[in-house]
Specification:
With 337 residues, the chain is of the alpha+beta class. It has two domains: 236 residues, Bacterial muramidase (Helicase, Ruva Protein, domain 3); 94 residues, Lysozyme. Helix 6 crosses helix 15, helix 8 crosses helix 15 and helix 10 packs across helix 11. The chain is globular.
Length: 337
């Protein structure tokens, strides 16, 4: 999906927070469409998007406020877990074997997606593995409920989620879907790859050529859509993703975890820190210095451009590292066949 900030780790949060549609029913309620901000939203949809007023009122009137959504989004896992804790959730034998099975079952589709978009098959697989455990956890909230709840009752991000609600209503109209039907994460992310609505509209592809972009039940479309997303965000075919450092260099801790974006080139980093960067990489490659709290202490890494691309899917270095290490474990398992 995106700003995708704090959204594409939704499979984890569904498990951690126990979000199940129907919980706390006594706290759920319909939205008052006369609320000024909701009324203004409806007016704008009618005026700028051509929606029928009664039809859109019927759709939004069927939405229900979900209190557990507010609870879940207020305590994101990436801000509470260390890398060691986060890694134990995603780099598991079951997720590795599941990725191996997924790759074997969809070998031809993954090969075609990798050839067309330049993204390795194991990276595509790992994204789907981290997001939904290969489709096992697609979410349990109606997307309509999630986006109404966050768009109108979560002030820190209400502007973003109102925009996503608009995208959702447009995509269901364009794709001729019932807005009350799609389900997803607490933040409205959908399908095998957990695309939010704007990402669906911009990056989902009909990879099997049947005229429908189905990321909910069609694994071929889901695979193509994840690959397309990464490719359009700048994936560099054949290049590395990250390199590990022995340490930060004396007194250079402050250079790490400044931003997800590259803060220097390899050459500039080596000059600032005196650290020898392994791998014989071009000194002009932009890098992001990363520090992670691992099982045995701090780990130091240099994220390359492809690492940054993975963070466009979810704006978290923990997420990107989980995708990377899961992909490596899956690739190793495939080689053992």
């Amino acid at each position: 999906m995106i700003s995708l900030r704090r959204l594409a780790f939704l499979s984890l949060l569904s498990v951690l927070s126990g979000t199940v549609m129907g919980e706390h029913d006594d706290e759920q309620h319909a939205f008052d469409l006369a609320r000024p901000e909701i009324a203004a939203f409806i007016d704008d949809l009618v005026a700028t998007e051509g929606f029928n007023r009664q039809s859109i009122q019927d759709v939004l009137g069927a939405a229900r406020y979900q209190p557990r959504i507010i609870e879940s989004i207020s305590k994101p896992a990436e801000r509470t877990l260390t890398w060691a804790e986060y890694r134990r959730i995603f780099i598991t034998s079951s997720r590795i074997s599941g990725g191996q099975k997924f790759m074997m079952e969809h070998r031809d589709v993954l090969k075609r997606a990798s050839a067309e978009y330049g993204v390795p098959a194991e990276i595509i697989t790992a994204v789907i593995g981290v997001e939904t455990l290969y489709g096992r956890y697609l979410g349990r909230y109606r997307v309509l409920d999630a986006l109404m709840t966050l768009g109108f009752d979560y002030p820190p991000r209400n502007r973003f989620f109102k925009s996503e609600l608009r995208h959702f209503l447009l995509l269901t109209r364009d794709e001729r879907q019932d807005p009350a039907t799609p389900v997803g994460s607490y933040a409205g992310a959908m399908g095998f790859g957990q695309f939010i609505s704007s990402s669906y509209r911009n990056y989902a592809v009909d990879f099997d050529g049947d005229g429908i972009r189905d990321i909910w039940t069609n694994k071929t479309d889901a695979i193509g859509s994840v690959a397309n997303y990464l490719a359009l965000h700048g994936w560099r075919k054949g290049e590395g993703i990250i390199v590990r450092l022995s340490g930060p260099g004396e007194g250079k801790e402050a250079l790490f975890n400044q931003s997800l974006k590259a803060s220097s080139t390899i050459g500039e980093f080596a000059e600032k820190t005196g650290v020898m960067v392994p791998g014989g990489l071009d000194v002009k490659i932009p890098v992001t210095p990363i520090r992670l709290a691992g099982e045995t202490g701090d780990e130091y890494w240099l994220g390359l451009p492809n690492f940054y691309v993975i963070t466009r899917y979810n704006h978290s270095r923990l997420y990107a590292m989980a995708v990377l290490q899961l992909s490596e474990a899956i690739a190793e398992a495939m080689e053992s066949l």
